[in-house]
Design goal:
Distance between the termini: 22 Å
Number of helices: 1
Structural class: mainly beta
């Protein structure tokens, strides 16, 4: 989960232990990792153009047999009023990844290649 990635839609990400950066859409400060349950809780950066200062829950799952995609994520909550409110949202359904993100597919992630940086 940590590193630089590109999703199905060409969006670029940098994920560190303390930050989820989705270029160019937003910065999220990770406040809680729930690795055993495969989700994290983050506070939206105050400079984000949408939902600044709100709270986000990001659920993830590993993918088998889908190279170059190794994992996928679902933003279950993106504008919650508190960390507790974000954590209470449970829309992600890993058993149906094609529709398990509130009716939409989980976004598949692959490692970012040098050619991806030229966008």
């Amino acid at each position: 989960m940590l590193g630089e990635f590109v999703d199905d839609y060409g969006n670029r990400f940098r994920i560190t232990p303390s930050e989820w950066l989705q270029e160019p859409h937003g910065r999220f400060h990770i406040r809680q990792w729930r690795a055993a349950e495969q989700y994290l809780i983050a506070e939206n950066d105050s400079a984000n153009t949408a939902d600044a200062g709100r709270w986000t829950r990001i659920d993830w799952m590993t993918l088998d047999g889908m190279p170059p995609y190794g994992w996928a994520f679902c933003v279950s909550a993106y504008a919650a009023s508190s960390a507790a409110a974000a954590e209470a949202v449970t829309i992600a359904r890993r058993d149906t990844p094609r529709t398990g993100c509130n009716g939409y597919p989980f976004s598949r992630m692959r490692p970012r290649a040098p050619a991806d940086s030229a966008r």
